[in-house]
């Protein structure tokens, strides 16, 4: 033990970038340690494409020992852990339907969100961007949407019992409606009567060359999400991944539709608003701050520079009446204003029922706040322009702003194709992409975002911050335990949270360590140890960081401690000499 501990610090020669941070982290596996199968691509990957997900069966006791029998249309799965791996990416995967049909999916986008979530996006080979796989994952919690070439819409969802591939049709779910979800703006706030009655010059409506010139640039629209307590109940530690997945779906749709805008999630905050008021009442309340829980919304919006705001609640079909609602900003060609940049979204499947709102509802409702309208057959008012309409053919496809299913992840645009050779729109008639490209700069200027410019370069100070670094490896016994090292620089003590995880990854990684233990070393000296963070004297403080999963308080380990500047090592082992794949993470404790 003494020999390998001392040798660790001699061999730690890889430093993280960020010399300004007092918490500089090094992660490595000690030379000679057993290399986990999960850290290297399987040998057969050089011959055949790896699977996107593994369908679990009754022979997997690790999963089925802790769940009730699956519901119809719900298939327990384990996602390929390399979806989030920057060092072993998945440029192509096989996707096998539960009934046996196989496809190849080609990756064409990967997003690392500020929260740490990772989105993997790909398209079905030979079918183009109409049929996509988009999955967002964070710490074993995954959410995604898959539109297969047969027209089936499949969902990926993680809950407390695991990760599931859901076929809504097979499950008997019905699509929720969006009826009457585009509301003409109120004459309130900065939307003065003169503003609302001022029409755009005709040249702005028809000069496509000017719009195309603007489309050559790009706009970032900052979004703030409000959510109710039931969203926390539904998603638990997966709530952030859920938010990131909805933003990623919208951004991928913009890219596939030639819309040069990007949504940026700048803040999310829980509000104790009613779960059961109708969506139209909720829209008025969130816009006007007329409920006590929403009084501070406009102050938060200014603080975080949020151009658009959406309130999210779990779908309650009996009370919400529809899947969402928003102001139709710029309706009938009027001026778009910040005071109409509000939306309400009913999320997921309905509480107590078999009706669900699809994952594009947020993108749809935010589309209204940017001047886009439904397909013409379902539009009471004109949007920002005479062509600001969705498009589709009933029984074939519908674009995001339409009421038509199945919904493809695109906004209407006559210059691109939907489902092979069919145009996604009609010039000067149904072209949401053109409309969005013409309004996005206005929407992006609704609020001023806080400065993101880095501060001038200075010597390291105790106020510098590093949020998180993590690594996964195989934990054996004795000298084959996993060791991670980190260095605290600067002159001031730093509170850090060190975690050893295993069970939380069981749905995504095979062969996880069932009961990891954690030791903290300063050179050869043991300064702290933990086995099961729920038994620690400061368990409440550890849980309050929001970085641990309460379900595994008696299995996973964590140490929250204030350390002086210096070099430290975190040793991960297995209780009772158990072995398996584990994750070690270090966060700033603040």
Number of domains: 3
Mean pLDDT, to the nearest integer, reads: 81
Quickly give the CATH architecture of the largest domain.
Answer: 3-Layer(aba) Sandwich
User: Globular, elongated, flat, extended or rod-shaped: what is the shape?
Assistant: globular
Distance between the terminal alpha carbons, to the nearest Å?
32 Å
SS element count, helices? 14
- Sheet bearing the most strands, described? 9 strands, antiparallel
- CATH superfamily assignment of the largest domain? Collagenase (Catalytic Domain)
CATH topology of the largest domain: Collagenase (Catalytic Domain)
Give an account of the 3D structure.
- This protein folds into three domains: 2-34 and 476-588, Jelly Rolls; 47-170, no CATH class; 175-388 and 437-444, Collagenase (Catalytic Domain), CATH 3.40.390.10.
- 19% of the residues lie in helices and 31% in strands.
- It has a nine-stranded antiparallel beta sheet with strand order 2-3-10-9-8-7-6-5-4. Strands 11, 12, 13, 14, 15, 16, 17 and 18 form an eight-stranded mixed beta sheet that branches.
- The longest helix is centred in the middle third of the chain and has 18 residues, at 239-256.
Set out the fold topology.
Blueprint: H1 2-11, E1 23-26, E2 53-55, H2 61-64, E3 74-79, E4 92-96, E5 102-112, E6 118-124, E7 128-138, E8 141-147, E9 153-159, E10 162-166, H3 168-171, E11 174-175, E12 182-183, H4 193-197, H5 202-206, H6 208-215, E13 219-227, H7 229-235, H8 239-256, E14 261-270, H9 279-288, H10 297-304, E15 308-314, H11 317-320, E16 324-327, E17 342-349, E18 355-357, H12 361-369, E19 392-393, E20 397-398, E21 417-418, E22 422-423, H13 432-444, E23 468-475, E24 482-488, E25 494-501, E26 516-522, E27 525-530, H14 539-544, E28 557-563, E29 566-574, E30 580-588
Parallel strand pairs: 11-18, 12-16, 13-14, 13-15, 15-17
Antiparallel strand pairs: 1-24, 2-3, 3-10, 4-5, 5-6, 6-7, 7-8, 8-9, 9-10, 16-17, 17-18, 19-20, 21-22, 23-30, 24-29, 25-28, 25-30, 26-27, 26-29
